[in-house]
Amino acid sequence: MSGKIRKYEGQDIVVKYDAQRCIHAEECVKGLPEVFARGRRPWVDADAASADEVAEVVVRCPTGALWFERRDGGMAETPLRESTAEVSADGPVNLKGDIAVVSATGESVLEATRISLCRCGASKNKPFCDGSHSEIGFQDAGNLADAKPMPEGFEPGGQLTVTPLANGPVLVKGSLEVRSADGATSSFHDSQAALCRCGGSGKKPYCDGTHKKIGFVAE
Hints:
Blueprint: E1 5-9, E2 13-18, H1 27-31, H2 51-58, E3 66-70, E4 84-87, E5 93-102, E6 108-117, H3 132-136, E7 159-164, E8 170-173, E9 176-179, E10 186-189, E11 192-195, H4 210-214
């Protein structure tokens, strides 16, 4: 699920990179082209900007393929107070928070603050997105099938446990706000949400059992 981690060492900050989780959203390249430059080898020059600037841009990476380690005593990345799942149009669900990805048998897979979950069914790096939605022409506007107003006193936060169920959805346990692609609609879940990962659900981004009808197969 996660590949070889590459390290790009600077005097004050180390940038780490997992190519398997990168879908070329290019937030890094747009944010600091002097640090992140496609076609250059190495493509990351961690000393080309201040450690604070590099850290600020790294956390914009929606997939979590980039993260950092400070050497200068600067602030490490901490999970956002609110846990969110942002549905992208024609693409993945971008999850932010204190995230623990575990297998269906309870084995730890990854701990992160940002991940992108496949929802087209075609990723070769499930449950993570690998950009296959573009290759297969996956289309979904990223609207929410329902809207659940925030209960009084509810604050989406705390650790999220993400578990891909065999041949089925991704189960996200914890308090969570799911946001539509246009940001106009939110749905709040105080315990868990089952997110479609087969691409066929009629109530995207949630599972409706279609994976059984279409014979979806995934660990």
